[in-house]
Amino acid sequence: SAMEALLPPENVRGMKSLNKELFKREVTVRGVVVPKRRCQEVVKALRKNSQCLKVTAIAPVREVAESKDSMLVLLVPEVEEEQFPTCMADLLTSGDASLSQTTVTLEFDNFSTTQILESILPEDVPIISGFATIGHIAHMNLRREQEPYKHVIGEVILEKNRTIRTVVNKTHSIDNTFRTFNMELLAGEDCTMVTHSENGCTFKFNFAKVFWNSRLCSEHLRVVDMLSKTAVVCDVFAGVGPFVIPAAKRGCRVYANDLNSSSTDSLTENCQLNHVSGRVSVFTLDGRQFLKDIAAKVIDYRAQRNGGEAHQAAWPMFDHVVMNLPAIAITFLDAFRGLFAGHDAIPLPMVHCYCFSSAENPEVEIVSRVKSTLGVTDLGSETKVYEVRSVAISARQYCVSFRLPKEAALSMPESCEPDAKRPRLGT
Fold first, then answer.
1. 179-197 residue pLDDT tens
2. How far is residue 180 from each of residues 170, 171, 175, 212, 236, measured CA to CA in Å?
């Protein structure tokens, strides 16, 4: 079709390394020379019909060298004369306007990212649908059939996005304890130290060494919005602080933990960057150990306070527990069994636990997993299962929020219960 003249030339297909020179092409386009005083009216009518040439960085309206009273308006290639808007047709009929042809030079910068990738990749290879941006890094998750063209894809993304300095591709799914994944550099600087803004907070971290997912931005906000300004929050898998920092900025006291020391080092720095260090205590422990340690501090603090003793540090009871490690967070709920045994007066927290489910009825399936891990028969009326996002064709990520049941938190740990008399085996 005539429109193909405005696309990149065919000889760039299959390119494995970006050569911008090959995108240059000369194109003859039609234009209409109109009186300057009628130009605005004609352009408006043409634009309304999508008949005015629209190419990045190419001006569709130009001065005419031979006549200072006229303007040249460039047209899209496929427009037929009978489709011209009335005002322009009238000018042509009266001889006040005339059609002309002009040569336009198209280069790499005149084409969109989509046009460039569609012209480079073989027709059976899908173009990338997008990428995540973390600071100055573009992070992609390429398919197998895109692999042979990964470097040229990276170079195009780098060229077309001014704020991007580094393009990486995820090479394995998240499978280790620290939720980091292997990545390869496709284009740009080999620098994974980023400064990233989210929800009015600044985060500095090494993207290659910690977990970060920009797609959870609105989810972080949803949970933080639930918190009162005086709430005490326990974040078991805190990462570099996407829940911790905005919660502390709100005024909350936060106990924050992560097993990955690269994460907690960044978290400590991010607390300073956002001026909330005074409200955050950072730990680098296994999740279960962290919950045990915090519970012990809380119990100890309450006892000292009730006994009127002077206490070293304030460890008020937490009102919320956030557990965002969806692959395995539910399994950590067993740490709550008997956590406050013998302390019936302690007000129990809301727990916000993340998980994946591909069940037909995810709510029922998730609640049943939670109950069985906690060893309870009922989760209570405050329970809600919220769908966070889709992660695969069949799997979705959810957040289940519930009040920690007394039945779990106050139960005596099995080891403390007196042994029931075991029936002796028949002799």
1. 555 788 999 988 889 898 8
2. 10, 11, 8, 8, 17
